[in-house]
Design goal:
It is built from six helices and twelve strands. With 180 residues, it is an alpha/beta fold. It has one domain: 3-Layer(aba) Sandwich (Rossmann fold), CATH 3.40.50.880. Helix 1 (20-32) packs across helix 6 and helix 3 crosses helix 4. The protein starts with 8 loop residues before the first strand and ends with a helix.
Length: 180
């Protein structure tokens, strides 16, 4: 199998409450494309994923966000779930980590409710993105343009609305990383 991303290292930033399929599906696709992946979280141990409101599996954390740098990664993936980005946006290290990716002009992919973290980081002014529909007002108030599309790519900011968009979301991430 061709591994177009075998020289890429990608950070997945998530914590308890992450929507499991929004973590596992991009992980599977990027791993299949040859990328090295790290699950970054707020603390060591495991994070608990959910299928919407039902508890699902736990996943081992590779690194703690307070101990990593965006310089160590080629891209950032932000899975959704409601509780996950809401908790991450309250952590100064997580917010700083996201800002650093934008300041370094590295690809950032966010799905569903994950753009809440982008709003908190103050990085979407002038950007066009999509998300779960309930974030539309937050994105507009933060200076972004919200669109109702399966996947949106604004100069390396890759966003999708929900798990039904995962095919397009994952394909666009791989496409963007293959161009680097």
């Amino acid at each position: 199998m061709d591994a177009p991303l075998n020289d890429k290292t990608v950070a997945f930033l998530a914590t308890d409450g992450v929507e499991q399929i929004e973590l596992t599906r991009p992980w599977k696709d990027l791993q299949g494309a040859g990328a090295t992946l790290h699950l970054i979280s707020l603390k060591q141990g495991k994070i608990n994923a959910f299928h919407h409101l039902d508890k699902a599996h736990s996943f081992p954390v590779d690194k703690v966000v307070s101990e990593v740098s965006a310089n160590d990664y080629d891209a950032l993936v932000l899975p959704g779930g409601v509780a996950n980005p809401d908790a991450l946006r309250l952590d100064k290290d997580a917010v700083s980590f996201v800002k650093h990716f934008f300041n370094s002009h590295k690809p950032v992919a966010a799905i569903c409710h994950a753009p809440w973290l982008l709003v908190e980081a103050g990085v979407i002014k002038g950007k066009t993105l999509t998300s779960f529909p309930s974030l539309q007002t937050d994105i507009l108030n933060a200076g972004g343009t919200w669109v109702d599309e399966e996947v949106c790519n604004d100069n390396g900011l890759i966003t999708s609305r929900n798990p039904q968009d995962l095919d397009a979301f994952c394909a666009r991430i791989i496409e963007v990383l293959s161009e680097d």
